[in-house]
């Protein structure tokens, strides 16, 4: 019998067609099955959720590390600003710490505020704690730009900035020169 002239029902009802590496079963009325099964979708969602959880924990650790480091760097720059303002304005500039409030203010002796930095969850930089290790919790730069560290037990003043398990110390001298170190 000539295949070209044979009626459609005369050929085999089912046949297999090769598509790429997959063999797709076809019936007379069926078309190839495409899409994903429920199990494949669930496995994909579970793997995606695990990856997302790992990425978020790594990212939160990165955020706390960078927050503490950034706060320490900003403080070091603000010390330079206070010293420069004292020399330029030829008057005393004071850096007052409020450790409980997690902030500090750079102000002129006359009381005018030059700069205010707020730390903590709602502040400029998210920190858990801020600690100036001086007796009076303030540093004053005179009109020559020399800082008063008489409340310090050493010739260096130290301020600590902590976010999570990350702590950065800023050591500074009477000239406002500073160095940021991690613990």
Protein described:
The structure is a single chain. This protein has 183 residues and is α+β, with helices and mostly antiparallel strands. It has a single domain, classed as minor pseudopilin epsh domain (minor pseudopilin epsh fold). It is built from one helix and eleven strands. Strands 5-4-3-7-8 form a five-stranded antiparallel beta sheet, covered by helices on one side. A hairpin with a 5-residue loop joins strand 7 and strand 8. It is elongated, with a radius of gyration of 34 Å.
- CATH class call: Alpha Beta
The CATH topology annotation reads as minor pseudopilin epsh fold
- Provide the structure class: alpha+beta
Judging by the overall fold, what is the CATH architecture? 3-Layer(bab) Sandwich
Strand content: 25-35%
Q: Can you give the helix content as a percent range?
A: 25-40%
Strand order of the largest sheet: 5-4-3-7-8
- Apparent shape: elongated
Structurally, how many domains make up the residues? 1
Low-confidence stretches: none
Q: What is the rounded distance between the termini? A: 90 Å
Elements, N to C (H/E): EEHEEEEEEEEE
How many helices? 1
Name given to the CATH homologous superfamily = minor pseudopilin epsh domain
What's the total number of strands?
11
Average predicted confidence as pLDDT: 80
Q: Strand count, sense and closure of the main sheet? A: 5 strands, antiparallel
Radius of gyration: 34 Å
């Amino acid at each position: 019998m000539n295949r070209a002239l044979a009626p459609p029902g005369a050929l085999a009802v089912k046949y297999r067609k090769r598509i790429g590496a997959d063999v797709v079963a076809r019936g007379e009325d069926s078309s190839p099955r495409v899409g994903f099964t429920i199990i494949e979708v669930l496995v994909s969602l579970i793997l995606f959720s695990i990856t997302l959880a790992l990425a978020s924990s790594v990212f939160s650790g990165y955020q706390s590390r960078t927050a503490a480091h950034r706060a320490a760097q900003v403080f070091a720059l603000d010390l330079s600003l206070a010293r420069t303002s004292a020399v330029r304005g030829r008057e005393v500039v004071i850096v007052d710490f409020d450790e409980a409030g997690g902030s500090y203010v750079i102000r002129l002796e006359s009381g005018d505020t030059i700069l205010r930095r707020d730390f903590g969850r709602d502040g400029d930089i998210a920190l858990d704690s801020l600690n100036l290790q001086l007796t009076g919790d303030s540093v004053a730069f005179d009109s020559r730009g020399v800082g008063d560290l008489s409340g310090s037990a050493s010739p260096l003043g130290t301020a600590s900035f902590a976010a999570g398990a990350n702590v950065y110390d800023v050591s500074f001298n009477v000239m406002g020169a500073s160095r940021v170190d991690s613990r």
